[in-house]
Specification:
single chain; 377 residues; alpha/beta; Rossmann fold; 2 domains; five-stranded parallel β-sheet
């Protein structure tokens, strides 16, 4: 039985997380059509080996980051041959190598080590190198990751992450190169995909890149380099590899303009995943589903929406709908609920308030503004 942190609210934890929290990636509230879409994509990835590019276009605060994190959670729970790496587009980028580093730092290196160890038990280094099309230096890096001491393993990790360890140090370990260009990075990525899927044809590396609209902040030459690098990676990994790029922009045309014609052509092979604002009915279901996700089966509340009553939830939705500066989306709804529940929490615990009524909700909202500027990052 989970610990009940807020027994007076019948909640095991605080449900309104305005900033995406990986701890709550397992939770899905409302949006049944979107859920069917993303689970269908994962199911196809697990069955069909061909590479794919998927675009997620969402309004600011509509839930794209949570959608990606929930997809990663589903991979771990239901599709264990799918290996997602969630990254956020770096705010500071000088080349495609910075982009490559953002993938390599969270990559599960132990998975590569396990695959390498399994293959070397029945395959000579020369056979493995030929089978994977792997440069000799990368094979040596994997060997150090597998059986090296702490220092050599650390250097091998630096090499894999394109952090440019000193050449003299590398040569003393029998390594004669570094990852210094887009072509080098793409080659290593291709070898990693092949290594992961060599004994497991259904395995797939999924690179999720959130906030891809940030590419629009950089000069044209850098945008072109990043697009070209991703396009090369896709071409070099025709199977067992997927890219998921998410955008927070106002129109699909703006999203399309941020991609090179070559990359957009590949992406158009899959339907765009669109996450619009919620309808009023969806918003009410969203609040109920979210509260329900934080209940304990042994600790049943007086009503599904408790500590809110139905009038309070209706008031929240109506208030947000009436504000021309606010859209009805998960982040705005959670901001409003968080404000109201934050004020009611102690009052309910001390029994000075039984439930959050319509009047109470409107009083709290009247004293605060929903921060729509936070959606524009």
């Amino acid at each position: 039985m989970p610990e009940i942190r807020f027994p007076h609210l019948y909640l095991v934890d605080w449900p309104f997380q305005v900033v995406p929290d990986p701890r709550f990636s397992r939770i899905w509230a409302d949006r049944e059509d979107l859920y069917r879409t993303v689970t269908g994509i994962l199911r196809k990835m697990a069955r069909i080996p061909q590479a794919s590019i998927h675009l997620i276009w969402a309004w600011y605060g509509a839930g794209k980051s949570h959608t990606l994190q929930h997809m990663a959670y589903l991979c771990m729970e239901k599709y264990q041959g799918l290996h997602p790496v969630y990254t956020v587009f770096p705010k500071a980028v000088s080349s495609f190598l910075d982009f490559y580093q953002s993938l390599m730092r969270p990559l599960d290196v132990d998975l590569l080590i396990d695959q390498y160890a399994s293959l070397t038990r029945g395959t000579s280094p020369g056979q493995l190198q030929r089978a994977l099309g792997m440069p000799a230096d990368l094979l040596t890096i994997l060997k150090y990751l597998h059986i090296g001491d702490e220092r050599s393993r650390d250097i091998a990790l630096q090499w894999l992450r394109a952090e440019k360890p000193h050449l003299a140090t590398l040569r003393s370990m029998g390594i004669n190169s570094r990852i210094q260009s887009t072509d080098d990075a793409v080659q290593v990525l291709r070898c990693i995909v092949r290594l992961m899927s060599f004994e497991h044809p259904g395995a797939r590396l999924i690179w999720m890149i959130d906030e891809f609209q940030r590419i629009g902040d950089f000069k044209a030459s850098l945008r072109s380099e990043i697009n070209a690098g991703l396009h090369s990676a896709f071409n070099d990994c025709p199977t067992n590899f997927s890219l998921i790029l998410s955008f927070s922009v106002r129109s699909q045309a703006t999203m399309n303009a941020m991609l090179s014609p070559e990359l957009l052509d590949r992406a158009c092979m899959q339907p765009v995943i669109t996450i619009p604002p919620l309808t009023p009915d969806q918003a009410k279901v969203f609040v109920g589903d979210l509260l329900q996700a934080f209940r304990s089966p042994e600790h049943i509340p007086p009503s599904r929406l408790f500590p809110f009553d139905e009038g309070a939830v209706n008031a929240i939705v109506e208030q947000l709908e009436a504000d021309p500066n606010v859209e009805l989306k998960p982040r705005s709804i959670m901001q409003a609920c968080d404000l109201i529940l934050g004020e009611a929490d102690v009052e309910i615990e001390e029994r000075r308030l039984q439930t959050i009524s319509r009047e109470y909700a409107l009083q709290v909202l009247g004293r605060h503004n929903i921060d729509t500027q936070g959606d524009m990052s």
